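#dry-run=false #mode=assembly
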Amino acid sequence: MKSEDEFSVWYNDIIEKAELSDKRYPIKGMNVWLPYGWKLMLNIDNIIREEMNRMNFNEVMFPLLITQTEFGKEKKHIKGFDSQVYWVTSAGESKLDIPLLLRPTSETAMYPMFALWVRSHADLPLRIYQIISTYRYETKQTRSFIRVREIHFFEAHTCHESFEDAEKQIEEYFRVIEKLAKKLCLPYIVAKRPDWDKFPGAFYSTGIDVFMPTGKTLQVASVHQYKDNFSNVYNIVFETPTGEHKYVHQTTFGMSERLLGATISAHNDSRGLILPPEIAPIQIVIIPIFAKESQKEAVMKEALSVKKKLVRKFRVHLDDRAEKTPGSKFYDWELKGVPLRIEIGPKECENKTLTLVRRDDCKKTEIKKEFLLKKAGEKLNEIAKELLRRAEKALNENTRTVESLQEIKTLGIYRMGWCGKEECALSIEKATDMKVLGPGLEKDSLKEKKCINCAGKASSVIYLAKSY
Amino acid sequence: MKSEDEFSVWYNDIIEKAELSDKRYPIKGMNVWLPYGWKLMLNIDNIIREEMNRMNFNEVMFPLLITQTEFGKEKKHIKGFDSQVYWVTSAGESKLDIPLLLRPTSETAMYPMFALWVRSHADLPLRIYQIISTYRYETKQTRSFIRVREIHFFEAHTCHESFEDAEKQIEEYFRVIEKLAKKLCLPYIVAKRPDWDKFPGAFYSTGIDVFMPTGKTLQVASVHQYKDNFSNVYNIVFETPTGEHKYVHQTTFGMSERLLGATISAHNDSRGLILPPEIAPIQIVIIPIFAKESQKEAVMKEALSVKKKLVRKFRVHLDDRAEKTPGSKFYDWELKGVPLRIEIGPKECENKTLTLVRRDDCKKTEIKKEFLLKKAGEKLNEIAKELLRRAEKALNENTRTVESLQEIKTLGIYRMGWCGKEECALSIEKATDMKVLGPGLEKDSLKEKKCINCAGKASSVIYLAKSY
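#status=ok
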């Protein structure tokens, strides 16, 4: 594990060198997405889009600004966000009659409209999502992708006829998370947040946390069951087939650019990033190599033919910069995490072979050119598998089940019995300077054991960790 | 031509009925993009992305907020936008030290960063774009897609070594506009804006205007040559190969959701929208038709097989709603402008044929099923051609060359000689209650003629129209 300082230095450095984001923008916590970083994020967005569309969600786009009046309606919700809200108070030369705020999240933008859209049971389920930016005035130290004030954000919102239908929707969210995490090669833990830590206004919240190289956890996604908490306030009512009027039950599912922060943190080595093939802006880079000018033509011709073949199935880049040596090109693309490199020199041209170099283990394989498409696909799959294996190893090695708080000496993820009382959880947090992430969703064998704090009967097994 | 009132009623009505946008959101001029409208806009965005990437532009994402300090640097620019800016003055409980504003456009967000990014001639050309929302406090009456306060916006920005390089870039923009307009089936006119009407801070501006059914024009895109106006203020300097330090020359290219407003306005009939195939969220809708329940299985099987075939090449929807009659399905999809309909009934099943119905002329064609892919592609191409032909006809019929202002009796686009003096242009505008769009870029035969106002020698031929 890395110390926080060590990690911070490395993290900021790699983001700058790999040209993902520029934090020199003159507003703290608001950074410029550079082309390579933005492509990475768009690739993640597109995976999310594909999965949400498959689940029959519709993409929409709500306004950024929310009136103070609408925002003020759900009291718990406001209390949770009030200290973080950016206020628009004037426009042009005039003061606004009703102050507007930049969305910190979109419940209060969407739900007045849901009240207009939902009339009868035939309108349900209502399932929409949007990919936008949200704004939160963070007072803690900011860090690219992990804690920022302008957040690239995904949010899905649903309305259902019943609590049970909403629960089924939540199960579906977990399947999306599973698919997405696999493509990012990120293992994760799922924990139902304790009541005092749920989303403001939610009935209950579930967090998706990943393990970071510092031993801390980072929440990258969350799923909320709202029950009819918001629909009561915003009057989202439907008529049942028998003519009754009922409040809808609602869920939300949120993720952010933290997915990218977690991916970068998980997959790297001393040379730089190692990007999961599914999201790499460049999956394969082709490097032509020749010692003499006389070899150039043949090598470049071969490189172009390889590119032409690959481009049908992969995101490929041919690095034909004349002023750079092959060595410095290797350095650049290793830093930027391109998963697979193809080297083409006079020998390869002559033998009708190609040299494939995996980014994860730097191992070379010589293949026959005729098997290029198949072999390249196989290599990319192997790299993805290896990245996931390494990340799972890190998570497993740092997740321990403990029976006494004295066993907790280092950062990491700890599992322990808990009686369910808030005072015990707070006491555990105080003793360890960590946070109760909440009970895991998996069935486990610790049910019969004792609460690690009061030694009373445990009602669940909780995760404990220091979190970002 | 339609009267403004007539058009307004029709326009608002079709946007509501085709479910493109919901303007009941509680902030004036900020509307909710509904799924169908948002898909249309994303399809337009993706055409733009493809063309910009092909020109080797990189997509980036700059922050929404700009500090008052950076915004205040270019005096002409601020003067142009000052009355339209939304101000963020506090966050959480604290007043901000320096007020922030929502970008009305991104020059003042980007150029301080360009000053950091550009060091030497090797960094040039710098070519980036972003697709975002901009915010302008419009005081005029708002209208979906055409005049809104939250604008879905595309903006490209470049830096070049010289004025000539920047001019070449502008030529390339025009080629992108040509390709995009063709896909939207929209003819347009290009006019260099008079000096008093150029973009605030620009050296010169060129507007792309389309003809609207009311006889007015709508500016849907603009291209600006900034020269070194902004680089002087933001200190964007590069070192030449000989070690000199020079200010970069800059261009921008902007478009917005008005592209969608113009497309809707151009392509429609009494039944509803007629969407250009390139951007239609659904290009082909399949309607199964059967009179008896016993025919259902065979028809549905055939419909599914047709869908499966088409889905490889087209955006297809099979309307299998049991509670709706075929007639009411026709009505729905005609309203929503789906370009091609395929009807499948027992007769079609038996004969291995399909009935294709074009949205633009409602003509039916019976085809053999084996030619489906080819024929569907042909029909869509024919529809696109016909939409463009109709729109060109409307533009040409309403563009007239005049030699005296007395000839101008109706709305429309007028061409006339102009001596180049501002006072003459203003006098023309006053006499006609129209706006000088500026000299066209095309070479024309009117050069020798007289200024329509002062009868002095004409230096150019200008377009005149009433514009939105």
